[in-house]
Amino acid sequence: MALSTSSVITLKINGEKYTLPVDHRTTLLDALRERLDLTGSKKGCDQGQCGACTVLLDGRRTVSCLQLAVAAEGHEITTVEGLAEGDRLHPVQQAFLDLDGYQCGYCTPGQICSAIGVIEEHAAGWPSAVTDDVRPEAGPPPLTADEIRERMSGNLCRCGAYVSIVEAVARAAAAGTSADTRGRASAGSANDTEGAVA
Ligand code: FES
Ligand code: FES
User: Fold this and answer.
1) Last residue of a domain, one of 22, 56, 83
2) Ligand 2 atom closest to Cα of 157?
3) Alpha helices, DSSP H only, in the chain?
4) Residues 125 and 153 in one domain
5) What are phi and psi of 5, to 5 degrees?
6) Which pTM was predicted?
7) For labelling, which of 58, 71, 130, 171 has a CA lying 20 to 30 Å from the CA of 23?
8) Is 50 in the pocket of ligand 1 (CB under 6 A)?
9) Any idea what the CATH number is for the domain that residue 173 is in?
10) Mean per-residue pLDDT, 180-189
11) Is 57 strand, coil or helix?
């Protein structure tokens, strides 16, 4: 008996449901960009090394080029398209805008999604490779420029906008940015688009 190589899956993205058939080898990035026309997430290397494709999966950052679409079923997926509330940008988006945290903008959606993940990870007390005191009782280390650079090191910027990116992440973190994108996505459109792509 021949094994099936495709399945019909339902992805919950930015609070909306999308049902579509996919080849099992389809990455989440390709499903977003090529099948669902959500082109905010960018394809840079397509092998997990540049971070341009970063999205949030249940609030945690992941590179969508290494995530199979079928494995993303049942999770809350947040892309850069789902961050703003109407005309109001997410605070991290606003900080990037205010501080020129970009030049060509190609890496920016991934940088912003990653920054949201960084702020949440830091607030939760996760240490990084440059954290001096990693004892749990030490709590979150100060979110210094070195901490931000290390935590954002998976996101490359060919334009070299790093100085402004670090400033933008620091400003958003200092402003107490809520990274609760899961709640925001869950509260999204009541008009789910099941069957929108067949
Ligand atoms: S496109 Fe996914 S990490 Fe580069
Ligand atoms: S702003 Fe151009 S690659 Fe980062």
Assistant:
1) 83
2) 4
3) 28-30, 91-98, 108-123, 145-151, 162-174, 181-186
4) yes
5) -110, 10
6) 0.89
7) 58
8) yes
9) 1.10.150.120
10) 42
11) strand
Q: Is 49 in the pocket of ligand 1 (CB under 6 A)?
A: yes
Averaged pLDDT of the chain: 90
Residue 141 shares a structural domain with residue 109: yes
Domain that holds residue 41: 6-83
Lookup: tokens for 149? 């650079």
**Averaged pLDDT, 5-19:** 97
What's residue 177's pLDDT?
A: 66
Residue nearest to atom 3 of ligand 1 (CA): 48
Which ligand has an atom closest to residue 109 CA?
2
- pLDDT interval class at 1 (50, 70, 90): low
- Taking the CA of residue 44 as reference, the ligand 1 atom at the shortest distance is 1
Q: Which ligand is the nearest neighbour of the Cα of 63?
A: 1
Q: Which amino acid is at 143?
A: L
HSE at residue 39, side-chain half, CA atoms within 13 A, is 3
Assess whether pLDDT exceeds 90 at residue 137: no
Question: Nearest CA to 114 among 175, 195, 67, 181?
Answer: 181
CB of residue 105 inside a 6 A radius of ligand 2? yes
Residues 66 and 130 reside in one and the same domain: no
